[in-house]
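In response to a reviewer's request, we include the raw inputs and outputs for one of the modeled complexes. The four entities were modeled together in a single run.
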Amino acid sequence: MTAPRPDSELGTDTAAVRPAERTRDADRTRAEILAVATAEFADRGYAGARVNEIADKLSTTKRMIYYYFGGKEQLYVAVLEQAYGRIRALEQQVDVEHLEPVAALRELAGLTFDHHEAHPEFIRLVSIENIHRAEHLAGSPALAGLAAPAVDVLGAILQRGRDDGLFRDDVDALDVHQVISAFCVFRTANRHTFRAIFDRDMLDPATRAHQRKLLGDLVVAHLTTR
Amino acid sequence: MTAPRPDSELGTDTAAVRPAERTRDADRTRAEILAVATAEFADRGYAGARVNEIADKLSTTKRMIYYYFGGKEQLYVAVLEQAYGRIRALEQQVDVEHLEPVAALRELAGLTFDHHEAHPEFIRLVSIENIHRAEHLAGSPALAGLAAPAVDVLGAILQRGRDDGLFRDDVDALDVHQVISAFCVFRTANRHTFRAIFDRDMLDPATRAHQRKLLGDLVVAHLTTR
DNA sequence: TCTCGTATGTACCAAGCGGTGAGTTACCGA
DNA sequence: TCGGTAACTCACCGCTTGGTACATACGAGA
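The model returned the following structure tokens for the whole complex.
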């Protein structure tokens, strides 16, 4: 995850008993910059993040950011691309095809729920990118039309459910995905204002099971009601 | 550009008791700064907004921003307070008590839907404030624990529905509000990334009626399913 | 009219910002 | 062994940023 090599030099930090074993490794440096930048952008937004601040948290220097990425904006795009890539890779591991339509639907919703809860940093990046009207995302050929695999899975489940006469047919897969996403994203993205106003922490572990069931009930009830 | 009408029930200090024809320039200047700052912060976020930029769009000068508000951060807090104040004032006008529980629920969801769609700027401010972990909102005594009136209305509807044996009883008002908010906020807050990835504009007027019905069906089906 | 405090405009600043010029070192293939 | 180049360091730059010192126009009450 983070840089494996703190490297002594100006030792403001602790430990680092390791002798100076500074090797040149482009991949490692690139990865370290991306990791630190991801944390920094997710934490403070694009405009709020500081290149100097990112550099200070690096074992290398600011110059390397420009050497590898060109500039702040390109670095941010690279962060976005990596984050989306990782999330999509995780989504592709979903396998609920062997379940009954209703059970599969509930399971998919639950997995999406878990998934979003496990990656708050990603949700923050998405929120930030929306503030900027997704201009960076739209400008990146790697990300523009990369739909989530989850929607295809959802489409298959819905089709089976309709074939069995269990599900209504005036709601498409993207509608359902939108509802699931909305619920899951909202919990993380709006956590702080919601808590400040309603005094409820939507991510409180104590109510997690209730919230997870709530989402499942919601989509199942909706699709099975005519 | 300049707001011709002071009309500020949200004024933090002013009496606002029918000023005689010629309002003091102070009120108008304050209001103008707030209006421009609201647009600018909503557009670019807190860190992305520039005091100089706001000043340039004013009929007065930057000096006045510091004279009336003290600094960028205090200006931002004032913007938040005004925005929340206005939204709550609108929410209090909701009246669905005369309807049957199911119809009332659907109507409230629909009104919230309309309401959020009509104030994208507010949604953006909320998103921005969440990026900053609601620290400004929590720090404002005027806003910290003031719940939306909509939740009380919802609570009354749910109670009536339960009394009539129509609604399930393991879902509370805040759960339902959370679901409704999630759906409505998501449409606006995540509009751009959702569109970039799934090629669906959730605010497309052509699908508005479908989306509105979707939300109504969702909450009604959920509450009426045992 | 003359005050005097409120409201406003002008000019300016130091710090911080993203970004770069130019030289230096470690690695690798020949 | 050795040269070429990728990887890296250091010092520096020009502009933008939020913020302010200071002068002053205005108008209501004496």
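As requested, we also summarize the result in words. Confidence is low (pLDDT under 50) at residues 1-24 of chain B. Residues 1 and 118 of chain B are 20 Å apart (CA to CA).
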